[in-house]
Amino acid sequence: MSAVAPTLALERRLLRECEIVISLDEVGRGALAGPVAVGAAVMDAAGARRRVPEGLRDSKLVTEKRRPDVAARATAWVQASSVGWASAAEVDQVGIMRALGLAASRAVQSVLDQGVAADGALVLLDGNHDYLSAVHPTPLTVRPVIKADRDCASVSAASVIAKVARDTYMAELHDGHPAYQWNRNKGYASLEHRDAIRVLGLSPHHRASWAIADAPTLF
After folding, report:
1. What's the pLDDT score for residue 2?
2. Among residues 184, 195, 164, 152, which one has the least CA distance to residue 23?
3. Is 92 annotated as a binding residue?
């Protein structure tokens, strides 16, 4: 785990200019199978005065065993949260970046449906590219920030919430397609996953438009 915990320094600065920060982070971008997911975590000025939950980090820096507990505490900490999805079929149809935009838009709409006001909201997006604005049906103020999942506590919350949700979903898909061992690799390009593809071919949950047979092994 990272020695440096994320803080609310950026969120507190932004909340001097806006009423709500909706923080987003994606998981599953590089997987060969399964959906991409974008977590959303909402922070307001009152919430930004609360202590960051113990152990909260970017989901990649939290062990798989600890993630569900950290995600539960993150969910209880933020004012609202959600996970938006785009399926493997949508990735094939529109490409990965637009699929990320669809998932992000669905995550944002979900928190708006929970009563979060869009007026006065700023979207804090991990990364260097705004993949949301071209897809979302109404204008939003979006601020991409590189390494926000590492440095900004609300984005870390979105990251771990989305990671646990997607891992759970991939474990459920594993029951119908056990040879691919998605309960272990979560749809990423492990050796066991690629070997199963060579023997069995692609399932309906694979991203068929990708050059899967030649995908690099990620772990």
Report:
1. 45
2. 152
3. no
Q: Let me know if residue 176 belongs to a domain.
A: no
Phi first, then psi, for residue 48 (nearest 5°) are -70, -10
For residue 217, pLDDT over 60 is answered with no
> For residues 129 and 101, what is the distance between their CA atoms, to the nearest angstrom?
11
The C-alpha atoms of residue 3 and residue 51 are separated, in whole angstroms, by 18
In a domain? residue 100: yes
pLDDT band with cut points at 50, 70 and 90 for residue 4: confident
Q: In what order do the strands lie in the sheet with 80-86?
A: 80-86, 36-44, 20-27, 121-126, 141-145
Residue type at 198 in one-letter notation: R
Q: Residue 105 domain-assigned?
A: yes
The reply to whether 25 sits in an annotated binding site is yes
The string of pLDDT tens digits covering residues 94-128 is: 999 999 999 999 999 999 999 999 999 999 999 99
Q: Is residue 177 part of a domain?
A: no
Q: Quote the CA–CA distance of 54 and 217 in Å, as a whole number.
A: 33
pTM (2 d.p.): 0.93
The CATH number of whichever domain residue 39 belongs to comes to 3.30.420.10
Please say if the pLDDT value at position 3 is more than 60. no
Determine which helix (DSSP H) or strand (DSSP E) holds 168, and give its type and residue range.
helix 153-174
Q: Annotation-wise, does 167 bind a ligand?
A: no
pLDDT band at 1 (very low <50, low <70, confident <90, very high): very low
Number of domains making up the chain = 1
Q: What domain range includes position 16?
A: 9-171
